[in-house]
Amino acid sequence: EELIFNGMDNSFDEWFQARLQVLGCGDPAYFSYLRSYLTEMEAKDSEEGKDPRTDDGAVYERVSDFTDLIVEVLHDQLGSALKLQVFSSEVVRRFYNRDE
User: Fold this and answer.
1) Closest CA to 42 of 18, 6, 74
2) Is 69 in contact with 60 (CB distance < 8 Å)?
3) Cα separation, 16 vs 21, whole angstroms
4) Quick one: angle between helices 81-95 and 11-22, nearest 10?
5) Are 90 and 64 in contact (CB under 8 A)?
6) Which residues contact 97 (CB under 8 A, 6 or more apart)?
7) What is the pLDDT of residues 56-89, one digit of tens each?
8) What pTM was estimated for this model as a whole?
């Protein structure tokens, strides 16, 4: 089964790298680590039969998972819990094309 990522263009990656750059996290290691985590979440979705592109519960679960990682990785750059949550939600929702 093909993952969602395989069919995506580079617009998400470009946007994500730009967002990290704005936060002062332009080091490619940040992007690589966080992007690989998103790819792992996508594989987990496939294994579990979830589709965060259409399932609100699944996308909220992924936002929560990604927020836990962001707290560890970008706490110093984002600071407040609210900024961490907003950034995490924005990234996951765009990743799954839920940025309406």
Assistant:
1) 6
2) no
3) 9
4) 170
5) no
6) 53
7) 898 899 999 999 999 888 888 888 888 888 999 9
8) 0.80
